[in-house]
Amino acid sequence: MLHYDAILFDVDGTLIDSAPGILNTLEEVFSSMGVDVARSDLGRYIGPPLRKSFGEHFSDPAKIEEATKRYRVSYAARGCHEGDVYPGVVEMLGRLKAAGLTLCTATCKPTDVVRPILEEQGLAPYFSFVGGASMDESRDNKTDVICHVLAQPVMQGKRVLMVGDRRDDMQGAVNCGLDAAAVLYGYGGREEVAPFAPVFMAADCKELTDWALRPVDEPSHS
């Protein structure tokens, strides 16, 4: 018997190194809207909801929506193709699924945006449910996305682990009463996630997989 029956995965910085496409698109949008922002400052926006990120630069809700719309149009055309699956992800998902775990995503990318990316990268078949944000503000943060996934029939009665790389992933898990494991190869790093006391911090996919598949009578070491 394993410790968990299901695992929710963040996507950006956890399954896919999507930084090139996200940074290129953010830079394009900010430039088109007259915001001079150094590229080195944009990394903090990988992961959190778009509206939250644009809200740091625009106080007018209409401008935030305009920036979000411009981002999504550009990202759909180019940015979504500028990413690569992290080393070991395919093997990790294969081992976890073969062991009988239910796998889902929980990402702040809208579902309609993330599903084609997972298909293009060959990851879609591993997931029983693709959980993402809505295109509007009705489901626009990690806590809401996780709650949405947990409400699905496939998740009922399961012991669930959240896996991600940023504070939003860890906070969302806390808010929803889930254990969270952090991957340290993504965009957040140990200093960002440690305050949320994740049950495990993994240096790579193999380490995470080995830990997740340990028997219940084997102690956990982070």
TrEMBL record:
Stretches of the chain forming a coiled coil according to its record: none
Pfam families reported for this sequence: HAD_2
Domain of life: Bacteria
InterPro entries registered for this protein in UniProt: HAD-like_hydrolase_sf, HAD-like_sf, HAD_2, HAD_sf, PGP-like_dom2
Entry protein name: HAD hydrolase-like protein
Organism: Faecalibacterium longum
Organismal lineage: Bacteria, Bacillati, Bacillota, Clostridia, Eubacteriales
